[in-house]
Amino acid sequence: MKKKKILTFLLTLVVITGLFAGCSSSKTSSTGITTTSQGKKIDKDKIKVGFIYLAAVGDGGWNDAHNDGRLALEKMGIKTIYKENVPESQKVQTVIEDMINQGCNVIIGTSFGYMDYMYKEAQKHPDIIFLHNTGYKTADNMGVYIGRLYEATYLSGIVAGMKTKTNKIGVVASMPIPELYRQINAFALGVQSVNKKAVVNVKWTHTWYDPAKEKEAGKALVDQGNDVISEEQDTTSALDAAQEKGLAGIGFDRDKKNADPKMYMTAPVYNWSVYYKEQINDLIAGKWKSQSWLKGLESGVVDLAPIRDQSAPAGAKEAVAKAKADISSGKLKVYVGPIKDQKGELKVKAGQSLDDAYLQKIDWFVQGINGANEK
């Protein structure tokens, strides 16, 4: 009888223990990631982040902007590694596997063409956190992120519109994808806000990174009479053509601090540390969840680099400061109608504005832009 009571007690204990285990909202993987009801968590000392770059660190633009964010994480005490010159191909998956073998539990891909490969790896490794820049595919363990750089590009358009004397402004553009359309359009709308006569001329390079091709495109625009050159490339080579002719230039992605102050006026820039530190802090706090992250001037993730007095037109700082405050507060919307496309067709009615969902897919140029609308 006594044995029966002991057996009953032990069975009851097993059931109760099982119930508590079943009600528990957390589990820890071999990578140190704990999944709780609030989100995913990793102890700070166990986090290791792998960054994948399309080109080399030192490009002065896109890749350096992301590397600045990586260095900000290291200042927080987070371990990081990175791989340069990774093409938008299946090579991405090989690099990811290698990073995981090196102990990385967070993988960050910084180029649009990495998306499908990262998504495949996210499905293969559900216990690894993936963050993909500029894409749109998400999973429970894969988030995407981008900043509303077009808001800062609008501000740079104000500077360009006030600077030009020929009323011809050139833009060297990389790939015909929505990201570029919304930024070039915003640039042109900024130009038009201060100079109705000016036109924006676009030349595509069909490459993210090719310094020689970028400079060649910049030279072609200079030869066509454009006296201000802006660029939407990973490097700043397009501005070399402007500098050689004593013309004005506007950079992209990152402040070109060492540029000729008589040529270089400013640049719309990313401060990716805002996003990277937020994501890592969320992981440490146990509240990381996959999301499509999109913020603008109000967050500090995008901004306009300091305007150079030696090259920028008089009054540009004041005009930009007012527009920036109005955009940040919501008083000014970049894409508010009436807006017509290149063919003169009304695309946005007066008083209406384009939302983020539309802008994520935009594939047309506004009126006042010359250049192929390539799809």
Provide the descriptors you would attach to this structure in a database record.
375 residues; alpha/beta; Rossmann fold; 2 domains; six-stranded parallel β-sheet; 11 helices; disordered N terminus; Membrane protein, Bmp family; PnrA-like; ABC-Purine-Binding; signal
Q: How is this structure best described in words?
A:
It comes from Clostridium tyrobutyricum DIVETGP. By secondary structure, this protein is α/β, with parallel strands linked by helices. It has helices at residues 2-23, 62-75, 91-101, 115-124, 149-163, 178-194, 211-223, 238-244, 273-285, 316-329, 356-359, and strands at 27-28, 33-35, 40-42, 48-52, 79-83, 106-109, 129-133, 142-147, 168-173, 199-204, 228-232, 248-250, 264-266, 268-270, 292-295, 302-304, 339-340, 346-348, 369-370. The strands form 5 sheets. A 6-stranded parallel β-sheet has the order 5-4-6-7-8-15, with helices on both faces. Strands 13-12-11-9-10-19 form a 6-stranded parallel β-sheet, sandwiched between helices. β17 (339-340) and β18 (346-348) form a beta hairpin. α2 (62-75) runs parallel beside α9 (273-285) and α5 (149-163) runs parallel beside α6 (178-194). The longest helix has 22 residues, at 2-23. The protein is globular. It starts with a helix and ends in a 5-residue tail after the last strand.
